[in-house]
Amino acid sequence: MEQVIARQRGTDFSSVAIRAFGYLFIGLFALCCLLPFLLVLGTSLTAEKSITLHGYNLWPKEFSTFAYKIVFENPAVIIGSYGVTLGITIVGTTVGLFIVAMTGYSLQRPDFPYRNRISFFIYFTTLFQGGVVPFYLIMTQWLHLKDSYMAVLLPGLMSPFLIIMMKSFVTSIPHAITESAKMDGAGDFKIFTKLILPMTTPALATIGLFIALGYWNEWYNAMLFLSPDMKYRPLQLFLYNVVTSADFIKNSSVSSNVQPRDMPLESMKMATAVVATGPVILFYPMVQKYFIKGITVGAVKG
Amino acid sequence: MMKKKKKVLGVALAATLAVSLTACTTPSSTDKGSTDKATTTAAATAAGGATAKIDTSEFQTISYVMLGDKPKNGQFEKVMEKLNAILKQKVNAKLEIKWVEWADWQTKYNLLLASGEPVDLITVATDWLDTWQNAQKGAFQPLDKLLPVYAPLTWKEVPPENWAETKYKNQIMLIPEDHYTQWVNHGFLYRGDWAKEFGITSPIKDWKTMETYFQGVKDKKPGVVPWDANGTAAGNIAGYINSYTDAIELPISTGLFGLVYGKSYDEKYKAYSPILDDTFVNFAKMMKDWGDKGFWREDVLNYKGDNRSELEAGKSSVDQHHTQTFLGERIKMDKLQPGSDLQFFPFSATRNNLVSMSITHGGTSIGAKSKHPERALMVYDLIRQDPEVYRLMNYGLEGVQYVVKDGKRYRPDGYDVQRDDFYTDFWGGRIDKNEIPDGNDWVGKGDLYASYDKVKKAYPYGRFVFDKAPVTNELTAITQIVGQMGPAILYGKAGDPVKAVDDFRAKLKAAGFDKLMTEIQKQLDAFKTTVESSK
């Protein structure tokens, strides 16, 4: 009897220990993730001079909002940029998700004759790409997409990685479902929208998040194809420009021509990061649970 | 294994693409034919009657590619309106500036030229904008025949030896910014007040005196790091070579710092490496000594702070940069640290080893696909030569961006940078004669420039483009070694300096340094022939 109690107590103790350890570990880990962001926030509110003298601090030694003033120098432009990015993200994610899901679904249907060959072609593009110059030529000379938001929207719609992910997810849905629906007289499109889509929500959430993040963070295509003559350009490009030009003006090793101006460089970088990541942080917890589910599913199916 | 295969295939594919691309962008013979024809007719009309006018009846819009961020405060449009009114009246044209922003500007600039978009005027620079590589791909129109007719003032102003510097395959590719003074020779910025305190009464001209200054700071200025250098900056080795040899650095990148120089101005076609002789050993010994004395912080190799801001805050006693920076900092320091009397020790001062900046550090070309190169040149000639247009282009509107008092330029009262700032980033043909001196310039600027003018020599390597292809592997290996072993030697953290230098040289040798030197010598010989044949 005593032994049992002792053992119970032992299990009790060890489970408490494990829990304590678990909470501690996860707590520390969370702190590790949170600290850099707090540091970014703190630095963004510190006067540049104080950063030079004392380095980065969690709590600003010398409080200043000058960096935000520079970033928000022209509020109309930054609001417009937010609008552009938001618009592209919403439209792109909706359309992209739909196309990716359709492609993924079709590619795994056994009654689709050339599915393996087409899958290979899609996969092939992850290995071999034309490079920047041909891409640029096609976009500007053939498709005439210079200074058009389509230049940012189109390339982000589909990605081989997401199609393969969708495909492997849909494989877990038995083909019998499709067949039985067919026997009941449903068309392919109906089967897809009424049966397949509702059964793939975790995958859709994951893929949707990937696409949305991609559009939210997109600046490279915008940088290549949207010229400064456009009134509003995506947020990330706008912010990237603010930082690079400040960097350039300050450390112009390339050219002695630029007059150095007083720019709060370090604090400004941090303010930029805050402005750019803020909305994503709010958005993340909402889809997080799907995100985890989706990832695990993909992992098992390979 | 798989990965390697992919890489090889990728490289092969890329190579094929590159070949087909260059094939596409070489100017077709028809292109050249048409410009030739256009020029002959124009020349004929010019020759036909002395006063025969060039036909400008058709209104044209001329684009000009500039590097920089598009100005957003509305001043730019106001100035352009005024400028375009003049251009319309004089040459029946309008100027439209196309901006290449700083975000990834190299890619964008080169893509713009590769894509064959029609650009008229475009900012070029042989040392930082890949002008020769683009010329090789046929991105620019040869200007030999157009210049005398459509930009006669500039054509006469630039002497033949300077035009020679702008030629690719004996054709003029760009108009150089050769009549504008700017100095970017490096040196130490140091505090005159502290130097005086340590008994240094005359301007510093060598590294030993610099050492005295550093020691003084170390002893008498607690809390100040004499030189809060970043271990990733290699200005000290280039500076030391500049001070203690007559060598002139070749435009061949070997990573962190340059290993290969021209022997001297008189022997400019002789490849030489100061790394292999006593210069480098003496340097390494001195830096070890300086490091041991604590002239920079112990963790210098990992330090990433901003030395200049520290100087401004009185926390460091030098900054290592070039003359233009010094002139700006001098004004700033007079405000931030009154009485600091910031001084400049140009590395060239020790032995008067000073070359001017390349005259093709700035310039303007005409795009190969330009639809109206003639009018573009006429517009350029006006920007460069007409004082009114020049000032609009460079300074903006008188009374808004600047006022002139006693022949000097000042900001008007109530000038607000955010609201009134204006720039066009015209770096393709500024000219001293049309400049209005800045009233806020440091008073010593004239003397400093005069001291440079006394000893300066023309930059000899403006047209030298090193073809890396035969030594790509060696160059990559050497670049890596320089990056790995360099910083420790540069800041005296590599133990015994003599042994460290020996190890460094042995590694370089093993990586094929001799082969690199031979190849450079070979290409310098070829360069010599081209230069002498085009004189």
TrEMBL record, chain A:
Q: Does the keyword Transmembrane helix apply?
A: yes
- Pfam families, A to Z: BPD_transp_1 (PF00528)
The membrane topology term of the UniProt record is: Multi-pass membrane protein
Bilayer-crossing residues are: 21-41, 76-100, 120-143, 149-170, 191-216, 270-287
Give compartment(s): Cell membrane
Q: Which PROSITE patterns would you find in this protein's record?
A: ABC_TM1 (PS50928)
Q: Which UniProt keywords apply?
A: Cell membrane, Membrane, Transmembrane, Transmembrane helix, Transport
**Residue ranges of domain ABC transmembrane type-1 in the record:** 82-287
Q: Known InterPro entries for this protein? A: MetI-like (IPR000515), MetI-like_sf (IPR035906)
* Family assignment from sequence similarity: Belongs to the binding-protein-dependent transport system permease family.
This chain belongs to the protein called Sugar ABC transporter permease
Q: Which organism is it from?
A: Paenibacillus marchantiophytorum
Where is the organism placed in the taxonomic lineage, from the top? Answer: Bacteria, Bacillati, Bacillota, Bacilli, Bacillales
